[in-house]
Amino acid sequence: MGNYSKSDLSFAEDALLASAIHGDHDAVVEIAKLPPGVWSRGDRAAVASAIRALQERGERVEPGAVFAIAHKHIEYAGQVLGEVSAAQPTLQPQREAKVLHEAFARHEFSRKARQLSRIPQDIPLEDYRHILEDTDLFESFPGRDGQLTPIDMSGWAHESPPELEFVFEGLVPRSTLAGIVAQGGLGKGWLTQELITSLAIGRELVDGFVPSEAMSVLWLESEDPPEEIHRRHAKIVHAFGISQVEHDQFARNVRLYAGEAFPLVKVENGNVIPTEHYTELRSIVREWRPDMIVIDPLSHFYGGDENDNVVMAAFMNLLKALGRDTKTTIWVNHHVSKDRQDDLSPAMGRGASALRDAVRSLFALAPLERKEIEDFGISDSSLYVRLGHLKSNWTGRTGGVKYFKRDVSKKSVSGVLRAVDLESEKQVVAEQMMDRAANELAVIIGENPDDLTARQISKSDKGADIRYELERKFPRLAKTRIIGGLLARAESRGFLNVEKKGKARIPRKNNDFLRGFSEELKQTDTSEQEVCPNAQGTGTEGLSESGQTKQEIPCSDSHKALSDSDLENRNKAAP
Q1: How far is C-alpha 487 from the geometric centre of its chain's CA atoms?
Q2: Whole-angstrom Cα distance, residue 274 to residue 145?
Q3: Region 172-420: CATH code
Q4: Which helix (H) or strand (E) holds 85?
Q5: Cα 514–516–520 angle (5° rounding)?
Q6: In this structure, is the dihedral angle defined by the CA atoms of residues 123, 127, 130 and 136, taken in order, positive or negative?
Q7: Fewer C-beta neighbours within 10 Å, C or N terminus of the chain?
């Protein structure tokens, strides 16, 4: 480091003092370690002396307490404290203390060097031993690491770089900012709680989010009270079969602070200042050393203007500083802007772009698009959300979209988000619908007393009545190009027996087979008509070692109705 100007020193003094007055414990400690002579201005030295006195007594450093001591030494203590309070606090108190210490050391070394240069030739050096021994002025104080030091890259050509460590394998690295953006009520809280539980027990609960191991989580949740989080927890336990052993591990690995919002920063005179809550949180992090900190939602802990990029950037830097020494990942949930709430894009987050710029791995929840609802034949789209991986700076993005559905099969799990494969389910539902239509066609054909051929049933006027009856239940399937495929399916499934007369094929229903299939259809219809409860269950049933609970009869999925247009498109190529 080179020489410092008076303005550099004045800035460092005020920044360090401002941080201490605003409750930064690290700044208080640094001031207490500095020699009294480092301060270039007497009034700042008086303020520092007051802070040091409070620290030695074990008392809280606050403006009123500092003034009570400082005004005994300077008449205008109030004015000085006002100037200091208005200064921009430092985010790196060790760095500012280093600047002041080095400037002081240079000054002292020069002074002592001048003393040594004036030693008379006839005076023994022993008489000046105190000057010779007191020249070690550039030693850093214990624990000081704020010096700006370049990275030694000389060995990089031959050394393997360190492996990237993850919280969730391949998705969320350690020591980064990550999070989810979504509109309110879409399931952000549910998904976050499932991820926290997954990480705490070290088991994959959310498809694709594989914990590296069981890890500790510090969780700040302000939107929901502890009672609601407890209810959700009980449902997650039942939904994923969490055992008593896993639950005990969860309780050890999660620290929850719920139901209260508090700002971690405040803005005064354009300066972003850490609050007492931030200082307390930093102390907890240093003591407990969590692997991940979850802040949900950001707006309740921010304390600034969401649209101010400068303030938001400073806030995100403060969040990163929380986990810098502990390799802690900071997970921040945020709401979306109204005009982008249905999009899956990095710009959908509300407010300043500094948030998405700072985050290294960003996910988003959004409702299904109209095309997805139609393509997958979903009757109740409110049960579904899609998850996108919008940004990843250190890893590759997952690509594509994951779909989740709220489980409404029984009270003890209602609301839990589960990953669903809509593409596969669409094919299953289409197959079931085609079987139903083929069965209905066989029933309509019956004994076929007029000996209508398959071709006549599909295309000629003689088969019009049969097609009309089929159209009443399956309007989109009663088409000439589709009925041929339905006849072939009915034959292959055993619904129809085909009698051959020359080249003609005369279908008749298979009474023995249809009797059994009809009974199966009736049972399926009954289960599908059952109303699935979505009330909040108590979820108080006890856990066994395996996590098993009383069996409950689930309702069928509500999205099983596929649109006629999908069935028509699917069967265009049918024989």
Answers
A1: 51
A2: 21
A3: 3.40.50.300
A4: helix 77-86
A5: 110
A6: positive
A7: C
In this structure, are residues 22 and 103 in contact, taking their beta carbons and an 8 Å threshold? no
Question: Where along the chain do the CATH 3.40.50.300 domains lie?
Answer: 172-420
CATH topology assigned to domain 425-537+555-570: Four Helix Bundle (Hemerythrin (Met), subunit A) (1.20.120)
pLDDT of residue 538: 38
CB 473 within 8 A of CB 440: yes
CATH 1.20.120 in the chain is located at: 425-537+555-570
Question: What token pair was written down for 171?
Answer: 């998705």
pLDDT in tens, 378-419: 878 889 999 988 888 887 766 678 999 999 989 999 999 999
> Mean pLDDT across the chain, nearest whole number?
80
Rounded average pLDDT over 299-308:
84
DSSP class per residue in 115-178: HHHT--TTS-GGGGHHHHHTT---PPPTT---S------TTTTTSPPPPPPEEETTTEETTSEE
CA 393 from centroid of its chain's CA atoms = 15
Closest Cα to residue 405, out of 190, 150, 96?
190
Token pair 């051929």: residue: 453
pLDDT beyond 90 at 115: no
Query: CA-CA distance, 292 to 286, in Å (whole number)?
Result: 13
DSSP state of 536: P
Q: What's this model's pTM, rounded to 2 decimal places?
A: 0.62
Domain with CATH 1.10.860.10 in the chain: 6-133
Task: Identify whether the C-beta of residue 441 lies closer than 8 Å to the C-beta of residue 419.
Answer: no
pLDDT band at 147 (very low <50, low <70, confident <90, very high): low
In CATH terms, the superfamily for domain 6-133 is DNAb Helicase; Chain A (1.10.860.10)
Mean pLDDT within 274-282: 89
pLDDT digits (tens, 9 = 90+) for 222-270: 999 999 999 999 999 999 999 999 999 999 999 999 989 999 988 877 7
